[in-house]
Specification:
The chain has a domain of 187 residues: NAD(P)-binding Rossmann-like Domain (Rossmann fold, 3-Layer(aba) Sandwich). It has a 6-stranded parallel β-sheet with strand order 2-1-3-4-5-10, with helices on both faces. Strands 6-9 form a two-stranded parallel sheet. The protein has 9 helices and 12 strands. Strand 1, helix 1 and strand 2 form a beta-alpha-beta unit. Helix 2 packs parallel to helix 4. The protein is 41% helix and 17% strand. With 282 residues, it is an alpha/beta fold. NADP nicotinamide-adenine-dinucleotide phosphate binds next to helix 1 and strand 4.
């Protein structure tokens, strides 16, 4: 299988590189410095040269708060670039894998969201990712939209690192206790994406559609922070606060809990967190 990854230097991209490099597949990976997905012509020329059977797009603009003041730009990166990729993949008979987010939902459904529930984002980042999802579905019949949430891992910025860094300088840390989701370890996600595609390659590729891939068990940021500190043996005081008290430029969905009803379930996030914390030295 010839696979092309876009966004190879991101939090998730670097883990996808790892799993595919260890595999027998012909694997190509490009970073932002090599290809800008909003440059449609150059992107298309590159894809034509490589002739992949699968394109994984892990490139995105992911600064949720900044998105609020860069709407046009964000729509290009997270939205329209995927329209171009979808058309290109359709022409080449390749499958497009698009990483999407729990933030396409408004978070009002307490019981969580199935793959076919109606999205209704509450911020620009969510709108832009939903635009990407829609444009892909309109322009190719060979796509996998994989939604995930609350990523943590070795590479890039994430909540776990922020908590541990903050704990060095602050005895008391305020954390929101009214936003719920499923924290997901980038290593587990990369492996699950690999298995999804590789199993498909061995048998026949899975059906095009929307999939949810997340570590299991729902938690709040507050409870998640407590779990992090418990595993690390830290005694800093974590103070629960509401989202209203900790206003951010972009509104967040309150219950953006993804339900995986189509694929094998991933392990729970507590176990994944323990493994992750063994690998970092903060
Ligand atoms: N992180 C999360 O909690 C989370 C949750 C749900 C879904 N997701 C989705 O999962 C995917 C991967 O996220 P991530 O956390 O790995 O993001 P990330 O760490 O921000 O990585 C994204 C990568 O995309 C690159 N990029 C940005 N604009 C680009 C452009 N125009 N052309 C080419 N590359 C570009 C970035 O390069 P530069 O840094 O050089 O700009 C970066 O290397 C994204 O689709 C994201 O929406 C993430």
């Amino acid at each position: 299988m010839r696979v092309l990854l876009l966004g190879k230097k991101g939090l998730l991209g670097q883990e996808i590189v790892q799993v595919f490099n260890d595999s027998k597949h012909e694997f190509f990976a490009l970073g932002h410095d090599e290809i800008d997905i909003t440059d449609h012509q150059k992107t298309n020329e590159t894809i034509k040269d490589i002739k992949p059977q699968i394109v994984i797009n892990a490139a995105a603009f992911t600064y949720v708060d900044e998105c609020e003041v860069k709407k046009n730009f964000v729509m290009q990166v997270n939205g329209y670039a995927n329209e171009n990729l979808a058309r290109m993949c359709q022409n080449l008979n390749a499958h497009l894998v698009f990483l999407s987010t729990d933030y396409v939902f408004n978070g009002q459904k307490q019981e969580g969201y199935k793959e076919d529930d109606d999205p209704s984002p509450v911020n620009v980042y969510g709108e832009s990712k939903l635009l990407g999802e829609k444009l892909i579905q309109q322009n190719t019949d060979k796509f996998y939209i994989i939604r995930t949430s609350w990523l943590f891992g070795m590479h890039g910025r994430n909540f776990v690192k922020t908590m541990l860094e903050t704990a060095k300088n602050q005895n008391e840390i305020k954390v929101v206790d009214d936003q719920f989701g499923k924290p997901t370890y980038s290593v587990d996600l990369a492996k699950s994406i690999f298995e999804f595609l590789n199993n498909g390659y061995v048998k026949s590729l899975p059906k095009s559609g929307i999939y949810h891939l997340v570590n299991e068990n729902t938690t709040s940021w507050y409870e998640f922070a407590k779990k992090i500190f418990r595993v690390k043996g830290l005694n800093n005081k974590i103070i629960p606060v509401s989202s209203d008290e900790m206003k951010r430029p972009a509104k967040r969905p309150m219950h953006s809990v993804l339900l995986n009803t189509k694929l094998p379930l991933m392990r729970n996030h507590e176990e994944a967190l323990r493994d992750y914390l063994l690998t970092i030295d903060i």
